[in-house]
Design a protein that fits this description.
tRNA processing; 5 helices; about 160 residues; zinc; binds zinc ion; zinc ion binding; Cytidine_deaminase-like; CMP_dCMP_dom
Length: about 160
Amino acid sequence: MKQDEYYMGLAIEEAKKAESINEVPIGAVIVLDGEIIGAAHNLRETEQRSIAHAELLAIDEACKKVGSWRLENATLYVTLEPCPMCAGAIVLSRIKRVVYGARDPKGGCAGTLMNLLQDERFNHQVDVVTGILEEECSELLSTFFREIRKKKKQLKKRD
Ligand SMILES: [Zn+2]
């Protein structure tokens, strides 16, 4: 869907903000009735908070904005597949739909390692769309980690 690509583009812009402050580039945007009600990027290092993931920060902002913990008709766009913590928060905030870019083989809980978003034992299931601007999303991450490895090598050479 064209719209999905548009909003994923905005999530990528968020991810780039994270990258610019040396955070792992992950960004999220929440949309309700065509309006952006939450937008955030990973701030784990900056804030030294293990829960400062893009999705959680965006959900928090969205709840404040609509004045409710229920985000029933909202769609969450995120550049990387949600981890168990964020997938849990997505289910608990009753988000209708999740669109993610890159799969996460080391932590993805929206279909890769497990699928917390669509487990029928929970009282809420989420529609999941994958692969929107996937290459761009994963390229952002692989470039980031490549640069880190390069910097580490250079530091070693200096010793
Ligand atoms: Zn997370």
